[in-house]
Specification:
The chain has seven helices and 43 strands. It is mostly beta strands. The protein has one domain: TonB-dependent receptor, beta-barrel domain (Maltoporin, Chain A, Beta Barrel).
Length: 812
């Protein structure tokens, strides 16, 4: 809503269009870099040198218009182009151009999509973007995510890079217990999120052959701000958000924003397991010719619950809930589980709180600058230093009731994943030099050269104790083997072969030169790019002794290795007319699994020492698409084909080394249709995927549904806006052996916004309106732990049950 009561795209409604809400009407008005125009008779013709000098400044202004915050200069109306095909895209591309001219599949989420929707996290909202598979059932973070055509690996986002303002959050996307979304929170400081599937992402960033998700911050240039307060209606949570622009001079401005919250979260417990927040700030000073200097700071200290798989049954080859354990609400952490005693990185005993769940700390400082010169050259540099740390604590059902348990109350065997993220800090720099040549007759040649460099630390300490946990979804107690209530572990355990006391310190130094050439000739745009990633790994790994009372010096593994690989991408886009464009692209990219999955966990000491190569995952994608618009209707479709050679490493929970080849073909489609006050946004992804190498050849890749679709209707009646977000996922297999299925499910989120008065809006949102069970992953856990009758135990993770919250927001 807006002060005048005229329609402006809101929460989830814009979540699944081709470009989905951009950063406001001001961005929608952004135009392409100025094309040469014929000189009038009264003025001398511009020289090629003069035109070349103007080009970088024009491009800079267009680029700035796409990243200058989310405040609209004028409200959008029903019937307007909500897809915003003229919005300038810079994420995952070498040249700032409109979506209509880019040969990539890209969608955008607005700030209101992220902060007003009932979705519990940014990763959960990404489920509504066509072509994105986001298993956001782990809580605020710890999501498993990939894009169409690319397999979902051991965990995290191996093939998709999370970015903040164009730089990686973490260099590696599948670090065990330390995924990139751990250190990302969407709040009023987030201006928008760009989601690139495939395209030139493989050459514009490291470890991103599948795509990029870029969280773009507000800058404050357009002024304004918001204050918000929300409260859970079906659960205990209080949250305050703010975002305020700063006007410090004629060419100097800034933005400050953040949030603070406290509560138990959406799953019932008798403790506050949510506590913390973040604050961020940016300051920008504009230079001449479209240049600028911007500094950003971020402080994140947040604690949220982590939701793990729960015990389930397998009936007729399908996962089903068991009596007494509701997978939508089950949460075994409460006051009956007050502490967990572990050993830290130095081997000393340490008392930790299971209620801490996922603890994320991040302090970062960044500087971004762009300078445009008279000779047609522009230089852009992005730098960020981040100190990241935290802890991951969550109970994983490692088996059924132990055979030596003598109690009468049913229990299951749980390993408490207690992992200290000692240091996941990093330092990144991306320097890019670009020169544009105006060739006349609407032709332009753009040359780009860049150098990415950085350091990523992966320092972790694991120590996992085993407990007998009561088999109930609420108020669970701990028991010893005699059936007595206790608060201590039964034993450290050997369910995974004494894997679970370890300390590792790995440092990755990365260097990646890249280059791109782009040729524009009227309606035709052609681009080609290449990248060569080089990485140097150093550090060590050490495990515990037989009884896990100290580290074992004989287990020490020294890490010293180098690895490198090239990537390339070639694409073309042709505008048949101003409302119809077609594109095609061929890309080949690479990614490296986290060292904790490949070098050490697999016992590969040859790779650690440099005597053998570090495994590389390779992906090749071919895609072709069409973009179409007319008044009230916008549509896009992309046909894709992907081949992935995965040598990915160990999966923590199954203890399997995953090495497979995959083939995937399919189509993704998106549409927006305005019918007066009714607006429909929809999308679907149809995928035919097979395993073509390794074990299980001919089977379907795990957790890969054939069909997913999304639909978001919104209706405006005066000061009231009604809307829903419907996401449907088809059946899929839990594992590559294709023996157990995850049933398909459809989840509906709904909201209503009411404009109380000018600038003041009340919102009511309901997540999972019909309280559906939706399993997103599952696996057997029968490594020596079974039910008393000897039946292997199965575990699975579901979406949360129904929850509702209310928000009051004032915008100015």
């Amino acid at each position: 809503m807006n002060p005048t009561g005229v329609y402006r795209a809101q929460p989830m409604a814009a979540a699944i269009s081709l470009a989905m809400m951009t950063m406001g009407a001001a961005q929608a008005q952004a135009v392409e870099p100025a094309q040469p125009q014929p000189a009038v008779a009264q003025a001398p013709a511009a020289t090629p040198a003069a035109e070349a000098a103007k080009a970088p400044a024009a491009a800079a202004k267009a680029e700035a218009a796409s990243t200058d915050g989310n405040k609209a200069a004028a409200p959008a109306r029903v019937g307007d182009d909500g897809v915003k095909l003229e919005r300038i895209v810079i994420t995952g591309t070498s040249t700032a151009r409109s979506k209509m001219k880019q040969s990539v599949s890209v969608s955008s989420l607005s700030a209101e999509d992220l902060t007003s929707a009932p979705a519990a996290s940014a990763s959960e909202l990404l489920r509504s973007v066509p072509g994105v598979r986001s298993e956001s059932t782990g809580g605020e973070s710890n999501a498993n995510l990939t894009v169409r055509g690319v397999p979902l690996s051991a965990g995290g986002s191996r093939y998709v890079q999370f970015q903040e303002d164009g730089l990686p959050v973490l260099l590696v996307g599948d670090i065990s217990f330390g995924t990139a979304d751990t250190f990302v929170r969407a709040d009023y400081f987030t201006g928008s999120v760009d989601v690139v599937r495939g395209g030139s992402a493989s050459t514009m960033a490291t470890n991103s052959p599948g795509g990029l998700i870029n969280f773009i911050s507000e800058t404050g240039k357009l002024g304004g701000g918001s204050l918000g307060y929300s409260t859970g209606l079906t659960y205990r949570q209080q949250r305050a958000d703010f975002g305020v622009s700063l006007k410090l001079g004629e060419r100097t401005y800034g933005y400050v924003g953040g949030f603070q919250r406290v509560g138990e979260g959406v799953r019932n417990t008798d403790m506050n397991v949510e506590s913390g927040g973040q604050v961020r700030m940016s300051l920008t000073h504009e230079l001449g010719r479209g240049g600028y200097v911007r500094a950003t700071i971020k402080h994140l200290n947040d604690r949220t619950p982590t939701f793990m798989p729960v015990p389930v049954n397998v009936v007729n080859g399908q996962v089903q809930a068991i009596s007494g354990v509701d997978p939508r609400t089950a949460f075994f952490i409460n006051s009956n589980w007050p502490h967990d005693v572990v050993r830290d990185s130095s081997g000393q005993l340490l008392v930790t709180r299971p209620a801490d769940g996922m603890r994320a700390k991040s302090d970062s400082f960044g500087v971004e600058a762009r300078v445009n010169f008279d000779n047609g050259i522009s230089v852009t540099n992005r730098f960020r230093l981040a100190r990241n740390s935290g802890r991951f604590i969550a109970p994983f059902p490692a088996g059924g009731q132990p055979t030596d348990y003598l109690g009468s109350v049913p229990v299951f065997s749980a390993h408490l994943f207690n992992t200290s993220l000692d240091d996941l800090g990093n330092q990144f720099n991306d320097l890019r030099v670009q020169k544009q040549f105006e060739l006349g007759e609407s032709r332009r040649l753009t040359l780009t050269g860049g150098l990415f460099s950085g350091e990523q630390r992966i320092f972790q300490t694991w120590y996992w104790n085993r407990y007998n946990v009561e088999l109930t979804d609420s108020g669970a107690r701990l028991f010893d083997n005699n059936g007595n209530v206790t608060t201590t572990s039964v034993t450290q355990g050997s369910t995974w072969g004494y894997c679970c006391m370890r300390h590792q310190e790995t440092t990755i130094n990365a260097l990646a030169p890249y280059a791109a050439v782009t040729f524009d000739a009227g309606p035709l745009s052609i681009d080609a790019s290449a990248r060569h990633d080089r990485q140097r790994l150093s550090g060590f790994w050490v495990g515990g002794n037989a009884d896990n009372t100290a580290y074992d010096p004989s287990s020490l593994v020294v890490i010293a290795n180098r690895t490198s690989a090239p990537s390339y991408s070639v694409g073309a886009n042709y505008e048949l007319n101003k409302d119809l464009a077609v594109f095609a692209r061929l890309s080949r990219g690479v990614s490296w699994a986290s060292p904790d999955r490949t070098i050490v966990d697999a016992g590969n000491k040859l790779a650690a020492s440099g005597a053998a190569e570090i495994a590389i995952n390779r992906t090749q994608q071919i895609e072709a698409g069409v973009k179409y618009r007319r008044p009230g209707l916008n549509a896009a479709a992309t046909v894709f084909s992907a081949r992935t050679e995965e040598d990915g490493g160990v999966e923590v929970t199954t203890r399997q080394y995953l090495k497979n080849d995959f083939r995937s073909n399919g189509v993704e489609g998106e549409v927006q249709w305005n019918l007066g006050a009714l607006r429909l946004l929809g999308g679907l992804t149809l995928t035919d995927a097979k395993i073509t190498g390794g074990s299980n050849i001919g089977n379907k890749p795990r957790r890969q549904p054939k069909l997913t679709w999304q639909l978001s209707p919104t209706y405006v009646a005066g000061p009231v806006e009604l809307g829903a977000q419907i996401v449907s996922t088809g059946d899929s297999y839990t594992q590559n052996d294709n023996t157990v299925k995850l049933p398909g499910f459809t989840v509906v989120n709904a909201f209503v916004n009411y404009e109380v008065t000018q600038g003041l809006t009340f919102s009511l949102g309901v997540n999972n309106l019909f309280d559906k069970i939706g399993f997103t992953e599952g696996e057997a856990q029968n490594n020596g732990c079974c039910t008393p009758g000897g039946t292997p135990v199965y575990v699975a993770r579901s979406i949360n049950g129904r929850s509702a919250k209310a928000t009051l927001r004032y915008s100015f």
